[in-house]
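PT: before anyone asks, these are the final sequences, not the draft ones from last week. 402 residues across everything. Please model them as a single complex and drop the result in this thread when it's through.
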Amino acid sequence: MADAAQPVAATRRERIVEAALEAFAEKGYRGASTREIAERAGTNQGLITYHFPSKEELWRAAADRIMGRLGTRLERRLDTLRTEEPRVRAREAIREFVRFSAAHPELFRLMADEGKNTDDRMRWLVDTHLKPRYERFAQSGVGRVTEIDESLLPHAYYVMAGAASLIFAVAPECRRLTGLDPETAEAVETHAEFVARLLVP
Amino acid sequence: MADAAQPVAATRRERIVEAALEAFAEKGYRGASTREIAERAGTNQGLITYHFPSKEELWRAAADRIMGRLGTRLERRLDTLRTEEPRVRAREAIREFVRFSAAHPELFRLMADEGKNTDDRMRWLVDTHLKPRYERFAQSGVGRVTEIDESLLPHAYYVMAGAASLIFAVAPECRRLTGLDPETAEAVETHAEFVARLLVP
DNA sequence: GTCTATAATTAGATAGAC
DNA sequence: GTCTATCTAATTATAGAC
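LR: through. Structure below.
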């Protein structure tokens, strides 16, 4: 039951991706160094360049991971809500997104960092991961429930994303500024309810 | 009326701070290099270290600038709304904040970047600039109007900030993802109305 | 697969010419 | 006040030992 029970290579690679996700989210793409990532993963920089041909590829693996987690979580929840009426389903989908944002502040941090610039990473992120999620939002999510006008969909999407996630993405600031620790279970549920009721009254 | 009409030193310094604000907002503190900032400002790296004893000091000057602009803009608007009833005043204050976020996406980018970490810059930012703004929000802004319970204030603050600003902070992503250019005058007003009505029905 | 050593580039800060 | 030149340290990527 020691380390040897698992393939070491997979473990090391996993830990590198996990460390990269955290580092990229915290310091931004440029700000996070591969040495720092290696150290976080408990290994050395050489092993990163063995598993990933470039820093860009490592970043993609990190983005794949967090977006995969989000997709799995949301689809699973939506699945259990198939039979609910639209407004209840929309509300609970929003609550689940808030909970995910609290458990994984890396998501918003990564998105906010990459969405600012027009470069290859942004384009890849939008085309590969964001478009499917946006379609899902438009088709079955809040987009349908809150408003009639199709032209408001982009506004509703970014309002929802920002309202749901910011407080967790800047949790250290929130603690110092307001005294509230947004990462407690109670604060997460309060925020989920606040945002869900706001967007789907 | 040529360049010589203004003190050159002040001009150069100004342009450096302006370039630094943009660069720090786009690439993050670590990601933005002083050489890159100098180039943006149309000068050289040596002049930056002449005007600012360290990169950290340059960052503070950039933060002072954007927070100063926000304060001036909001106080001026609130001043013209003194006689309005609370809900109208709150709604218009939110609209004004949305407009400011559209005109100055650097604000949200800088805040989102710095609020993630517990370091000297975050602490300085909170203590120097964010606390006064948060107090103002609590005392005369949306905080008073939308909800009764004082404990919801932090949630309302971050919901407002995120809902109002994210779409402009990630404008390049928004354009590619949704087809909407959030920087057009029409989109800004639509967003302002959407957020204001949502938070103050 | 995992590591150390190192090459080539770039970082922030300093020194000094003008 | 503005610039070029340079120091030291840190960056990504590569080469090769084991």
